[in-house]
Design goal:
By secondary structure, this protein is an all-beta fold. 0% of the residues lie in helices and 59% in strands.
């Protein structure tokens, strides 16, 4: 079962970075599932920043920037396995 941890609010195409508005905490090393309609892919969080500073963990309410290997659309749901 997956638990929603946030939604993608912005996508930076040139650097393949998504900004996630978190509704729950997220840590480096977490395996997330990004879902937008029928499209879905999994990604391990290897790089995460808040205000251009590297962080190991982000909490509810933060807007964290994460690097992804696939394009993610704004409005996509981000979830982690429980």
């Amino acid at each position: 079962m997956n638990k929603e941890v946030g939604k993608i609010t912005h996508w930076y195409d040139k650097i393949s970075v998504a900004v996630i508005k978190l509704s729950s905490s997220l840590s480096k090393g977490d395996v997330v599932t990004i879902t937008h309609g029928e499209d879905e892919f999994q990604e391990t969080i290897s790089s995460m920043q808040i205000d251009h500073k590297d962080v190991e963990k982000a909490k509810k309410g933060d807007e964290a920037a994460v690097q992804l290997s696939h394009k993610a659309k704004e409005g996509s749901t981000v979830s982690v396995e429980n």
